[in-house]
Amino acid sequence: xxxxxxxxxxxxxxxxxxxxxxxxxxxxxxxxDMEAIPRIRRPKAVHTLDQVVAQxxxxxxxxxxxxxDLVGAQCRAVxxxxxxxxxxxxxxxxxxxxxxxAPEDAQAHQSAMExxxxxxxxxxxxxxxxxxxLDPPDIALFYATPGAMMYFxxxxxxxxxxxxxWSVVGESACADSWGRALKTRQPSLSIPCxxxxxxxxxxxxxxxxxxxxxxxxxxxAGMEALAKNGLRYPFPQYGIQQMSAPAWQSATPAxxxxxxxxxxxxxxxxxxxxxxxxxxxxxxxxxSVCATFGGVRSPSETVPxxxxxxxxxxxxxxxxxxxxxxxSRARSLA
Length: 334
What we know:
The protein is 28% helix and 13% strand. By secondary structure, the chain is α+β, with helices and mostly antiparallel strands. A six-stranded antiparallel sheet has the order 2-3-1-4-6-5.
C-alpha cells in the first residue's frame, strides 16, 4: 500500500498539536543502500543515537549512520549495528554503580532490553516522515505530550480494539520505543530516559511513540471519528463554560417548586477603580442579595445594577455598575 507521507505527517501534527515533526527510521542490510538516499547527511563525528534522532525530529535532517558513527555499544546494540551485544555488553558492567547497585541488577537490565538482533544490518537512516525519503520506512515515530499520546491510542483502539501492554526498561528507554518497534513491528510507547533528554533534547513533558507506518492511517481515522463526537485534543477542562449544579441551588422555595432556574447573586466587597488604583467604595450588607431569573442565564452574563433594588453610591453614574453573576461572589466595578 502506497501512503501519502506528507499528508500523514500533517494529519498527526494537526490532530495532536505536535511540537516536533514526525520522523521515520529504516534499517539497511547494505551500507551502500543507505548512502544512496537523496540528500542524506553523514555525521562528521561520533554521536549518541539520541542526537541523530533529534536531528531528524527537531531540525528536519535526513541522517544515515553505521556502527562507527555511534558513541558506544549501548546505542549500537538497540538497533543491531556493529555486533555490539557481546559478553561485556551483556554483563552491564559499565552501568554498575552508576545506574544499578550491583552487577546482577545491571545484567538483568541488559537482558530486559528489546533490541534488534545483531549481524543482519549494516546501516540505519532517520528522516522526516513527510519527506518520503525512506519510502517505505520500517517505523514512524513522534514525540508528544501524555494527553496527545492517550488520544492517539484512543484512535488506534476506535475499531478492532486491542489492549496495549508496554514495558519500562528504565535507562536506555530507546529500547522501549524504536528498539521494540524495529524488533517486533508493533506500536511501542516509551517514557524517554536521561540520555534521550540530556543528549536528544527531549522535553520534560514528552513521550515517544514508535510504530509501523501502516498503523497511522487507522489511528488518524479513529481520531477523526472521535472528533466528530466532540472528543478532540487538547482536552478542554470541565467547568470553564459550565454551570456547577450544587452552586445554583434554589433561591426561594416558591421558585424551586416551579422548577425555574435560579441564580444567587452575592454582593461581596464592592469596589471601584480610579486612576490611582482600586479604592474601596462600600461593603455589601451582611445579608446577601438574591436574584431569581426566569430564564437560563450563563454565569458569564451580567445583570445591570438598575435591576437590583437599593441606592447607587457615588455622585455620578458615568459608568453603570454591573453585577457579575458567579457561583460564589460578584464584584461591581465602576
